[in-house]
Amino acid sequence: MGFSYRFRMDFGAGTMEYRFGYDAPTEPRRSAQALLAAATIHPGFRESNSLMLHRFGVDPAYSAWRATIPGEHGRIAVRMSQRNPTPLFGVGLIDEIPDEAIIAAARRRSSSAAQPRGRVSRVEGGRIGRFGWKAQTATVEEFVVSAAANEMGLDVPGRRQAGDPRLLDVASDGLDMNRSECEALVDFVRELPPPILSTPADPKKAASVKEGERIFRSIGCAGCHLPKLGDVEGLYSDLLLHDMGADLADSSGYAVFGASTIQVKAPASGGEVSETQEREWRTPPLWGLRDSAPYLHDGRAPTIAQAVMFHGGQGTASAERFARLTTRRRRQIEAFLSALTAPKERTDE
To answer: What three-state secondary structure class fits 124?
Structure first.
């Protein structure tokens, strides 16, 4: 079997991640040798197929040891990657979109032969993934609890943080958040309001936004960024996986834990778990786009225009059409996308 291990680190200005990637040979003997090699790089592999590498450790030699991790280790490569956090507004509505609506989006036919076709992400139990850059998570509950563990490094029910690889016998005494606290956090996130379309008061600017939306559709962007999915208006996503080209390729693995991780039980709904390819990404919802810069999974695009131009693979044709537009028309598209804003702050009466 192949494996991909990711190690998160927080460098302050940005969150970086080491990842192990390995494609196992067909011979079981060599596969076992590879697993042993992984254990020599990180002793934690002796007890688990997945674990975290934290920025700090109590062992005085930890920092020096960690510095030796990046690079080639036989057939195992350790690289660095970065993840831009996904906005949370409106995730409760995304959670309520029927599976049938997402499946229908994957099956829809278009009059355009060049219409990009996405695929449904299937996770444990055959459920449909709809959250995360790789659509690797099926529900808001799993998404929030995993984020508490992955991004914040908290010990929560079902997500045990891996310890210092130099001190494998040292473990945390208990949970940082118990089940009721996790449920309260999930309820809070689920109720966050959705983003809005902020139409300018100035008639000329409002007309520019409207024209920008028309051009957005005409160059094919709405083929993946569906304005409506199920009963959710203004989402601008099909929640499907699309090939975005080699330049945006990145590891399919994400967020790993120690050996005592409790697997989330999923309903037996049929179907198989699909392995997300490195070139594939979930179509990110565009609502709230103006207030979620920098853009793309690793934040490489500081502006909306740059984010569009980075589109490859199935997004190439639309990106090329965008590039051929006049400056005025490109700015109209940007005006429309900039009108997709985060919810207005609520004030207590």
So the answer is: helix
